[in-house]
Amino acid sequence: MSKGIVLLAAGGTGGHVFPAEALAFKLKERGYSVHLVTDSRAERYAGKFPAEAIHVVPSATIGSKNPVAVARSLWTLWSGMRAAKKLIQRLKPVIVVGFGGYPTVPPLLAATRLGVPSMLHEQNAVMGRANKALAPRVKAIAGGFLPESGGAFSDKTIATGNPVRPAILAAAEQPYLPSHPGEPFNLVVFGGSQGAQYFSKAMPTAISLLDDVLRERLRVTQQVRPEDMEMVGGCVAQLQMGADIAPFFNDMAERLAKAHLVICRSGASTVSEISVIGRPAVLVPYPHALDHDQAANAAALAATGGAKVIVQAELSPERIASILSHVMNDPEKLAGMAAAAKLAGKPDAANLLADMVEAIAAGKTVSEFKRTRV
Q1: Is 336 assigned to a binding site?
Q2: Most buried in the list 5, 260, 354, 363, measured by CB within 10 Å?
């Protein structure tokens, strides 16, 4: 018999859905039923999500200064909150947990108005706009990189780390195996939904600048936007190199486990997954992030020695080629970075977050939960 329903709310990107998915697996193991509220973008991520049902409620972000657009967004949010209120009244969840993104706003607002326990999980080192708007209303905040002291809501914040999916935990069991000169070198490149365009242009040029011996060693996995597939595919064919290119990889955890080097953006889930698996990385923060959260996320891993951070404006194809030339001939350096990255990982984050969810659902305060951890 189920212990009750937990309603998770997440924006429709991997950065929001993946931590929610990791928590959902833990809650299912503990006897809860899980429902997910999200938007239509999450369909490609939701195939493995262990939810009894996935619900879509109207939502919108207020990013425009146009009065008509603002009015339309407010109407959509009001409609979404009414729909979320009906959903919560029907499901009667023991708690509602938000993972950021504008689709979380209606269900969390509805939960707080109905007196249902609620909390947030913030993946990044800088709180996103949706979570920041909801933070004063919820009972507790779990932080992937947020500090427990010094922040605006530190009195209700627990530093849980970012929960990672079971596939990542399985991949973490595979040790880092250095690639020595003459051996295949697995390079994984991905940029997230907003960042793949830069890598689509930079990486083929960088690889073309490598000498033949190094290029023949490379085995590249690269996430490429659909509109860039033809261009990148043509470059791969011209370079006659081993490469898998696709807009999305369902087996990314396994590919990360086999990687000798990762070049990627520094979204919170990405940084957390690389840390848990323990792989060396070159992190390129997305330069147009509104709150510069990716730069803060990257700094956290770079501080341990597990990653090198380079801003996009300073990362030319020539510099990428230079980096590859050096590290492909220095397996000991990469092995050291891999070990440092793994030390920074928090593989037990999902368990801690599940503990916190159960405590807040049971009516405990953040202070009471903190005392139980000591």
Answers
A1: no
A2: 260
